[in-house]
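To whoever is on call:

I kicked off a structure prediction for a single chain this morning and the downstream step that reads the tokens threw a length-mismatch warning. I double-checked the sequence; it's 338 residues and nothing unusual in it as far as I can see. Pasting both halves so you can look.
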Amino acid sequence: MNKYFLFYIIFFLCITLCKAQDAAETKNDYPNVHSLIDSIRMQYAPDKRESVFEISISDVNNQPQLNGVTSVPKAKNRLINRAKIIYPELIDSIKLLPSADLGENIYGVVNVSVADMRVHPDFEYEMATQALLGTPIKLLQSKAGWYRVQTPDGYIAWMHNMSFRPKTEEEIINWQTLENKIIFTDYFGFAYAEPDIKSQHIGDLTAGNMLNIVADEAEFYKVAYPDNRIAYVKKSQSERYPLWKESIRITRESIIDKASALMGIPYTWGGTSTKGVDCSGFTKMVFLMHNIILMRDASQQAYTGIQVDISNMDNLQVGDLIFFGKKGEQGKKERIRH
């Protein structure tokens, strides 16, 4: 073996062991604070899908320092106050989200038909969920072109900046209060550069996409994207949002009809659109077509609405959602999975 190669291997192992030892020593130095961090997390931010609480403790010149980020101010204040009882000299380096470096643009609107959101800020990581064109989002944190965002159903994940248009608080209020919008009601389609289906495509469209109406043009709506691009959408594939909302009649039969209409849409892990759905994304999409926003995951949806006693299966009715879980084992809690 090349002696230089052997040297680099030994050097790398030494660095790795040193880092592991430092981490272990830090944890042993402040065991009470580590327990406190876990306790505060469970009390104020038990679900990382809905809140951010990523806090650690380090040693800086023989002084304990709390580092990390959180989206829950009460959690930070509680942690700092209690930790300073143990260590009055504690250094607070916890950053509150939304991050100050975002400036006034702490909101955004999805600018593509379907925006993929991932568990970490990189395309190589798994998809957590999706957001549809026109969806308002809250920006929490940025990292190399990626933004940690929160959707209207409370779900937090990472979205690339190509997928949305940043907005100020005033701009997002204007967008949300605009009644002159269309909702795309077909499953797939396009927005065109001219009121002609043979013209250039501006973008693809999927069910639930929303755009601002600029004008009526015969068989088309002239619309504006969140980034102010102008396009044309066929009236036969869309509807004015207020009229669509008023026309909805939620019945058990309509739920089954919408569910059946999604048969054939491919399974996609993290999918919540007509491009692809997973199990909870499927039910979320069915109810979105009724103007009802369900929580994202099955374990969240299971606690939404009225629970049904299934000890007697005759209690179940058409349109009810049934959830499946996994029993707890080896220290892991039981949980809803499907």
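Update from on-call: the warning came from a stale cache, not from the record. Cleared it. Sanity check on the structure: Confidence is low (pLDDT under 50) at residues 17-27.
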